Amino acid sequence: MDLLLLVLLLVSPVHTWLSLEDWGSGSVEGSVGEFGECVCNVYLPDTSFPADRMELIQTTSSQLSVKVKLQINKIINLKIQLDVLLSSLSNLTARVEILESGPDKYIKLDFELLRIELREFELLVTQLKASLNSSSPAFESLYTEIRNMSLIVDQLESYDRSNLEVIRIEFTKLQRKLEKCQDDQDDFSNAEIGSCKHGGILRIGKPVISQLNADLTSSYAYGGWGKDSKPMPGSENMYWYSASSDTTVNRIIQYSDYYKLIMRQPFKIHSLYVQYNYDRRGTGNNYVVRENTMYYQFRSPFAMAKWNMTSATIAYKVVPEASTQFSYHYSANQNLDFAADESGLWVTYATAESNGTLVLGKINEQSFEVEEVWQTSIFKKSATNAFMICGVLYVTRSVDTQTEEIFYTYDTNKNEESYISIAFEKFQDFYVYLDYNPTDQRLYMFNNGYYVYYNMKFKVV
């Protein structure tokens, strides 16, 4: 019966369909059509199939499916982020454990050095104020800044490295203000830069401690730093630094200016390691930079060497008389000591023939030859260092752990030697590098791993 109903529904027009109730009850009679076919009238109830609603359901279902997939992707991404956060939390926990293990693990930077610098700043401001016999508001402002900086140091002692960079910037600003005060009151130098119209050193100022070396380790006690003594155009503000844990000279690093030096942001690092079976390393710590060329003591063979930092080329020249048996008092291998002043390039050394006394040689920069020598009466091992100013050799020795003294001079202009006494303060007992720079009339010292410099006052003639 169901099959017959289905056939009738399919082959008959809609208007001839009987209602299902009438069909089932047999109450509806059929009739014969024009061509003899069976004709039945069927009346469908108002329950037609909701195709439009079905289509809406299908569309909604598809949309829900897309939304579910998006939510699943979000859950996956959140899981990935959660894994990253858990990893970061683990790293943070490890950092906290390191910090809790001891205050020395906060950062390698020495907070005590910051306090020492502030005390030096305060002392320098006091000296400047006394020399000018003035109570200018500028000095009071500097005192206030120093006191505020001391408070910041105390606060930042428990902070991380990024905050310490902030205080370093503030230190640099403060130091520049102090340097400006020095320049304005003209107390430390009364000679024009580049001029030799003075009677030599009158006195040396207090040590100005810039900071620990760029490697942030006091184990790098051997090295040097400073400026180019005859800078190329555009490099007037350039600084350089080189250091190691021993007297081997492995590299030299260049910084575009003082701020970059303090922030440890070099623009060029020159390696002197062995390359292509050729050893370019040096030894000793008395090197200078002149016209973007580093002059230093060659390691093998024992000779003068110059490393051109522009062309990355090297040359060396043996000094036959120079001996490796005589070094300065503080350190071994200080056999060839280079110096640069207003009149050119120099080297000091000792010879066996002179029984270890200092010999001063003038270097011809073009031929790289020692063209003229002067014999002194100073036994090199009793001296701690030496430098040149306007053709005059100044030799130093140790007085005690806090005091150094210039005790001897040799004037090559007059061929005269003399014994003098100009004492100056050391930041720490041990130092290996001391050289004068004619571009700013300062002494640069590498003092047990720290950058230190001195301003000077010359005698009026």
User: Percent helix among the residues?
Assistant: 25-40%
Rg over alpha carbons: 43 Å
Give the total of domains: 3
Provide the residue-averaged pLDDT.
79
Oligomer: single chain
Tell me the number of helical segments per DSSP (H or I, 4 or more residues long).
7
> How does the major sheet shape up?
5 strands, antiparallel
Low-confidence stretches: 1-27, 102-109
Number of strands: 25
Text of the CATH class of the largest domain: Mainly Beta
* Distance N to C terminus: 138 Å
Shape: elongated
SS content category = alpha+beta
Task: Determine the strand fraction and express it as a percent band.
Answer: 25-35%
Give the second-level CATH assignment, the architecture of the largest domain: 6 Propeller
Give me the CATH fold name of the largest domain.
Neuraminidase
